[in-house]
Design a protein that fits this description.
mainly beta, four-stranded antiparallel beta sheet, 0% helix, 26% strand
Length: 200
């Protein structure tokens, strides 16, 4: 992807998170993974590697299915009918026994032990490209999500209620978003892409 200088304004959105974290201690980002997977890449190394050893080559063949759950997307709008956009393409976050995961226009929280849905958030119908969503960011009690039409959302992790939204780029100028926001310190870093910059 090629970026022109004039297109950099929506590329980087840095927003202060504000209050002291409660649900997810920011220190978890710097520790080896144990019972928490706080980012789309597992941790800041981006390796998506877990040092946990209870599951290994000698016992992996004994694993059994614990639960399944079909998450209802509700009626499809015309803009949400892309098959690719309705597939999970991101690593779920795991914090305090809760899984948080997303596709384009949808975010869920589920009990990691039972699969029971805790809440579901749906973004309104929009004209953006619905090709994928790469996941969520989290800081304290708050989740961060990029909508396909370029809004950075902040939700309460406990109930999925929207706290605020901030437009990062203009969908009418062919900008779209699928990236998982990254939390560094008390800042949220996100980006948008443009169809005009995709090489054929």
């Amino acid at each position: 992807m090629t970026w022109r200088r004039k297109q950099l304004w929506p590329f980087l959105a840095l927003l202060a998170a504000g209050l002291v974290a409660q649900l997810l201690d920011p220190a978890a980002f710097k520790k080896p993974l144990t019972d928490t997977c706080p980012t789309d890449n597992a941790d800041y190394t981006g390796q998506r590697h877990s040092p946990l050893s209870k599951i290994n080559a000698s016992n992996v063949n004994t694993l059994v299915l614990a639960w399944t759950h079909r998450f209802d997307l509700g009626p499809q709008s015309k803009s949400q009918q892309s098959v690719e956009g309705r597939r999970i393409k991101a690593t779920p976050l795991l914090v305090k026994g809760v899984l948080y995961f997303s596709i384009t226009d949808h975010i869920w929280a589920a009990d990691a032990r039972t699969g029971r849905e805790l809440w579901h958030y749906e973004w309104p119908d929009n004209r953006a490209i619905h090709v994928a969503n790469r996941g969520l960011g989290m800081y304290g009690d708050w989740l961060y999500y990029m909508t396909p039409d370029n809004y950075l959302l902040s939700l309460n992790a406990k109930d999925g209620k929207e706290r605020w939204r901030k437009q990062v780029a203009d969908v009418r100028k062919d900008w779209f978003s699928s990236i998982a926001p990254v939390i560094i310190g008390n800042h949220v870093i996100t980006a948008a892409g443009n169809n005009n910059d995709i090489r054929s």
